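Dear colleague,

Thank you for sharing your sequence with our group. We've completed the structure prediction you requested, and as agreed, I am returning the results in plain text so they can be pasted directly into your records. Please verify that the sequence below matches your submission; if there's any discrepancy, let me know and we will rerun it promptly.
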Amino acid sequence: MANLRININNRFYDITCDKNNEKYVLELSKQYDAKVREQSLKVKNVDHSRLLVLTGIILCEELDKILKKDSKIDNPYGKNYKEQVTGIKEKYIQRINHIKDKIDSLINRIQSHNK
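Please find the predicted structure tokens below.
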């Protein structure tokens, strides 16, 4: 485990993370810090602990909206993702079979000319 010191809204926290994950965790903490600071400008007179909780809830809400959103290919967690992937696979299988048929036809024509 690696020890890190992160800064959230001008307060330092000592945390641990998996080795070789330090850069990623630091980047996430910077993103969280930015979100906390953004909320602190919107909500006045809230103590630090409540601000952290509020920001966490807001981030969960954002994630929930993404997960519940009707699926697009770039959102693999949406409800229609499996159907879309199946549809794409079927189209590619049809295309591959069409190409295979053309190749087989060409092979037959070449073989008939060589006889």
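Summary note from our side: The longest helix spans residues 81-114.

Kind regards,
the structure core
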